[in-house]
Amino acid sequence: MPKGGGYAASREATENLQKAISRSGSQLAIAPRLATPSYCSGATYLVFLQAVQALTASNKSVDVSVSNALLVKGQCDGSGIWGRWNANGPGTACLFHELQLGHSFISWESAKPGDFMKIFWNYNVGIREHGHSAVFLGLTKDVNSGKALVRFWSSNQDTNGFGERQVPREKIFGVIFSRLEYPENVQRNLATLPRLNTYLASLLSADSSLSEALQKAGIAE
Asked: Is the model's pLDDT at 60 over the cut of 80?
């Protein structure tokens, strides 16, 4: 992934993200440098797509409907693949659960570098939440205070777009990790994916809770 490029949660950023993901036959062509300025869910979605593409590279018979379903086309929150990824709350975890792409969990001790993570900066889920989509890089300690620090990659305001960041773990009120284990299930299970996840769609205008979010994503507390 490139570095920097500017941060903006704007229509321009979404339009550029859309341009960065195109289809060539049944395959995707992904050009992250076109997706600038960027925002967190768009940045991690680019990583997800590249991971799926790399891990299924031997499959030359990817259905056109699959690559088409992975495109960003202005889907509303909860709709299709991008609409789930970009939703408030446990969007990525719900997608992984519905397509059986891997398991999601909340244990810091179980997390590994490369896991996708949804960070909650407050206790709210839904319309009042303050969250962040990122790729977990690991835990470390502040050399002066000894406090635990969380390293992650995303599009961040203080890295001017794509970049690595670390924050005190105590600043994170909640987290959901999602580990990509079965990328081939994007194709295998796409036909059974409902057009809309009504729970994720509701989070645009309603409050939820971390407990409900975990239940909707199939995660045991």
From this structure: no
